[in-house]
Amino acid sequence: MASDDSAAATALLTEHLGYTPLSLVDDVFNSINTIIYLSIEKLETGLASLPPERLGFKGSKSTIGDQQVNDEYADAKQEIEEGLHQLETLLTSSADKRFDAFEIYTLRNILSVPPDLVNWIRLSHHEGISLSHADAPSLDTIEELRRKLAASRMVSQSLASEHGRNETILAQLKGILDADSKDETLPNMSFMPGKLPQQPFSGQLPLTTNTTFALSQLPALKTTLTELRARLATLRGMQLGLDTAKDERREERRQYIEQRTRSHLERNGRLAASNKGPLTGRVTDPAEVDALEKAANMFNPP
After folding, report:
1. Any idea what the Cα angle at residue 294 is, between residues 289 and 300, rounded to 5°?
2. Is residue 31 part of a domain?
3. pLDDT 10s digits, 141-168
4. 290 found inside a domain
5. How many DSSP H helices and E strands does the chain contain?
6. Are residues 9 and 100 in the same domain?
7. What is the value of pTM for the model shown?
8. Is 130 part of any domain?
9. Positions of the region Disordered (predicted)?
């Protein structure tokens, strides 16, 4: 129960302040750490700029031949870095200990709401809000809203797919009118006028404007008509040639069948060789038909 009250108090403070209480404590702690790091950096810069003698370092001497030469302060930089590191560790450790106590005190005594007052506090933006259960939606209302939401999503998806199909159709139409289109599956309609009229023909415009517009379109229409007539004549010629070729093949096939039939009848003595007229049929004997059917059934049993 205590944890529930604490969570409710934290939620109330977060809604009132616009941020969680713990984030405020963390910001203060991060600010102090930033100040510590900047101070150590400035201190390091200042110590590095001072002569080592002023910091108490003594240079060592070495002998080269018969002369004594002062060596550089080799240990000064290392001792400064080690000392600054120890100072930084000491400051951060001290800040951690102090801010642990600061965090506990702040969250318990400053940024807190007594548990018995949580349910009685009303913020300014809560004014006029009725929290009674009488205004709560029923299950049927919620289900109806869900159905409406699902229907709206389906409509949205349908519109999105329709938009995609329309974009595809527009792209194909633009490809048809584009003379530089590389898609060979689309018909080439680039011979049509590329520029559309800037102002459409409308009955609401004055008569002079409509007449001027119609006259301005006549040259383009004549050019288009001439090109279409040439293409139509080409198409008619292709169709006529196709029909003629089909008739010739059909006539050749008919003559071949008639010639083979006549030769067969002449070999069997059914037709005189001098008879060049059209072939006529004969009356077939029913017994002959039955014999042929029996022979066919022998080769093709059911």
Report:
1. 125
2. yes
3. 889 999 999 999 999 999 999 999 898 8
4. no
5. 6, 2
6. yes
7. 0.37
8. no
9. 259-284
